[in-house]
Design a protein that fits this description.
This protein is mainly beta. The chain contains four helices and 58 strands. The longest helix is centred in the N-terminal third of the chain and has 13 residues, at about 140-155. The chain is globular.
């Protein structure tokens, strides 16, 4: 009996996920095509007695299926190369323990059979409520796929919120060092050391055995290196970082060590200290035996103080330079026996120092300061301030002409990369396309380099001028998120950032938006069809899952903060000055609607083509029951800004907002159960003594909702808001938006590209 071939011939539709039952002709399809393979899951119901017939199993296996278990009623197979649910270890289940009918922590074949029979219409859901993950009264293909995954790999432990982006890390990366075009290391917060052997395409964590912040890294070849950090930490490796060993002989236990530079495998300098206006500390250490012993060195006080040092560079076994607080520059030509303060007119803190050759040096720091040294017999340094730069954190040179400096422009919230090709006489900005501070830079030649920074930012250039992100998605702040299913979602944010997932957030990939405008909101109605809105009146639409985003004209020069489509045709967008526009043709054209307000509108929610709400500044709430032909104000009883609104029916909504303030924030949660005739305030318990502002809200039914806000705050309710409970996000950056597809599965996005996901409702 050629079971698999019969199944394929009868039920396969191109690009479809297909189910077949011999008991009843039944095919149901959803897109599941992957490059080079199609056809994802097959289930065959048959009347076997005892064990399955050998020829049937052979046919299934020959066709590429994995047969997990065979009972009298069911053969389950999966095309492992095509569908993630079949590949052991490919990625975790989307919803924890879907299909575990008896709650024993495992999904059996009998329970999968129950899933199929419920999907076919008999028996009822009461025989296994666990199969209905989103509590909508039916068992879908997604839910059966999750149950199959749990049968193949076992029920995963329930997870709270886990970081999905940025990867490999969302923590600050403070230092970087490459020894070739392929091999390099980075160091950063919480003791993180990352290593790559393919030019940064892939990074792996190395065991540092510490959780203190690390700031400096130095390698003299592909095997021998050091990292330094807080609390006097010095780590050493002789095997490329496979193991890191602490070096403590002669090191101060409590000082911050900021930087390290090595001349060879034996001779290195380390500098650090604590900045303090009245009583700073200064650290200079040298080793001549590869770190077996670290010997303290001292410099004469400047103005009676030994200010902290932040960078050091070794030019030979005897010559080195160090820079630090209040424009301090120190130099030695005798191995550090004597460190000589240099004349420098700048008092700006200096963070990095580099030499183009033995004659030309540069130091960079606060206020865009770049200090240049040209030998003139007295060793004076001449300061300059580079326009459009607030802070420069890193500088490096590959030869006497080519150098790069990195930093940040806080006023524009943009990372800064500068390049010189004339020995520092002129510096030209290069596009970083990143909103994070950029802390350090490493080049191996004048074309190949890397820059690292805040939020796990990893940038790479292969031509010395064009920079691309090596994180899979984005490290720019994300303001909006939308999911159309358990698997398919989009996130949007600063500098035109768009990230897409097709696996529930396990992996996110960057997409090209062809704009540098900030995108504040995104809405999707399928895995192919989505819209995003943002600065300058821009609206983008994709009809192919984000392969191409096409601009649409709505309101030029008007900032748009919220967008919502209820289906492929009907959508609304809101923004500054009370702007509301509607489309009834998928965004091909937009018609302005009269909001009767000039207040900024931050968010919009519709439950169908007729009923919707918009919220915004000074507690503004607007309501329509005719698709926006008429908008009427509703009383919110607050003058606080409302940043988000979520509705689950024509009667039930939440709105959230407040004021972000470090010392005295204001938090607003409003709920209506009568279509907005009354908006009732709700309260949440303080977190760390404060009720921080809320920027996003999502709800899946009248009882279950989440709100997110400042300092990584996540709140959840399962009783309609009578009680709001904080959930652990493990982040301290603001979270700006949240989306849930059922009571277990949701995502939130925020600062520095942060995307968090949960498969347990956040609990």
């Amino acid at each position: 009996m050629k079971v698999a071939r019969r199944w394929r011939k009868k039920c396969v539709a191109p690009g479809k996920l297909v189910w077949y039952s011999t008991a009843a002709s039944y095919c149901d399809g959803v897109s599941a095509t992957k490059p080079g393979r199609r056809l994802a899951v097959g289930l065959r119901l048959a009347s076997f007695s005892g064990q399955c017939a050998a020829d049937s199993l052979s046919d299934w296996k020959r066709e590429g299926f994995r047969v997990k278990e065979c009972r009298t009623a069911l053969v389950v197979g999966l095309l492992g190369a095509t569908l993630w649910a079949a590949t052991a270890g490919a990625r975790p289940s989307i919803v924890a323990c879907v299909g575990d009918c008896n709650g024993d922590g495992a999904v059996t074949i009998n329970e999968l059979l129950i899933a199929v029979t419920i999907a076919l219409g008999s028996p009822g859901l009461d025989s296994c409520k666990s199969l209905d993950a989103n509590n909508d009264g039916q068992v879908t293909v997604d839910e059966i796929v999750n149950a199959v995954d749990n049968a193949v790999r076992g029920c995963p432990q329930a997870q709270a919120w886990v970081v999905q982006n940025p990867l490999p890390t969302g923590d600050d990366i403070n230092g970087v060092k490459f020894v070739s075009a392929q091999e390099g290391w980075t160091v950063g917060a919480f003791g993180e050391i990352l290593h790559t052997t393919d030019g940064g395409q892939h990074w792996s964590f190395q065991p540092s055995q510490t959780d203190v912040d690390l700031y400096g890294v130095a390698f003299v070849n592909e095997t021998t290196g050091w990292v330094v950090g807080d609390f006097g930490t010095i780590l050493h490796t002789t095997n490329g970082g496979n193991t890191w060993e602490p070096q403590t002989n002669g090191t101060p236990p409590n000082e911050l060590l900021s930087a390290i530079s090595c001349w060879n495998a034996n001779i290195c300098w380390v500098v650090g200290g604590t900045p303090d206006l009245s009583a700073p500390t200064q650290v200079i250490l040298r080793t001549d035996d590869g770190g077996a012993h670290w010997v303290p060195q001292t410099a004469p006080p400047v103005k009676g103080l030994n200010d902290a040092l932040f960078a050091v560079t070794a030019l030979s076994n005897n010559t080195a330079w160090a820079v630090g607080d209040f424009g301090l520059i120190l130099g030695t030509t005798d191995g550090g026996t004597n460190w000589n303060p240099q004349t420098n007119a700048s008092t700006s803190r200096l963070y990095s120092v580099a030499f183009a050759d033995g004659q030309h040096g540069f130091a960079v720091g606060d206020s865009g300061t770049l200090v240049r040294w040209t030998p003139n017999g007295g060793g004076t340094w001449t300061p300059d301030a580079l326009a459009g730069v607030d802070v420069l954190y890193g500088v490096t040179f590959t030869d006497s002409q080519n150098g790069w400096a990195t930093g940040v422009n806080f006023s524009q919230s943009m990372g800064v990369i500068l390049h010189t090709n004339d020995g520092g006489a002129n510096w030209t900005p290069q596009d970083a396309n990143n909103t994070n501070s950029l802390f350090a830079v490493s080049f191996v030649n004048e074309q190949t380099g890397w820059v690292v920074g805040g939020g796990g930012t990893l940038l790479h250039t292969a031509d010395g001028s064009t920079w691309s992100l090596q994180n899979p998605a984005s490290t720019n702040t994300m303001f909006g998120v939308s999911f159309s299913s358990l698997l398919d979602g989009f996130a949007v944010g600063d500098f035109g950032a768009i990230a897409r997932t097709e696996d529930g957030g396990t992996t996110w990939q960057a997409q090209s938006s062809s704009t540098t405008a900030t995108l504040y909101s995104v809405t999707s109605v399928s895995n192919q069809l989505a819209w995003a809105a943002g600065g300058g009146g821009i609206v983008l639409r994709t009809t192919d899952g984000g392969a191409v985003w096409q601009p649409q004209t709505v309101a030029p020069d008007t900032w748009l903060f919220g967008i919502k489509f209820v289906d492929a045709q009907y959508g609304w967008v809101v923004g500054e000055n009370g702007t509301i526009a509607q489309s009834t043709n998928g965004g091909a054209s937009w018609q302005p609607q009269n909001s009767k307000t000039t207040q900024t509108l931050d968010a919009v929610a519709f439950v169908d083509r007729q009923t919707g709400w918009a919220v915004g500044d000074l507690g503004t709430i607007l309501h329509t029951t005719n698709g926006g032909t008429d908008w009427a104000p509703q009383t919110s009883n607050t003058t606080q800004r409302l940043f988000a609104v979520a509705c689950v029916s024509t009667q039930n909504c939440w709105a959230v907002g407040g004021t972000a303030d470090v010392s005295s924030p204001v938090q607003i949660i409003l709920r209506t159960t009568d279509g907005g005739a009354h908006w009732v305030p709700q309260t949440a318990p303080p977190v760390n003594g404060l009720n921080d502002a809320l920027f996003g809200v999502a709800a899946v039914d009248q009882q279950t909702a989440w709100a997110v806000g400042d300092f990584g705050l996540i709140l959840a309710t399962t009783d309609g808001g009578t009680n709001w409970s904080p959930q652990t996000s493990h982040v301290t950056d603001p979270l700006y938006a949240v989306a849930f597809v059922n009571a277990q599965t949701g995502w939130t996005v925020g600062d520095r590209g942060g995307i968090l996901g949960t498969r347990s409702g956040g609990r």
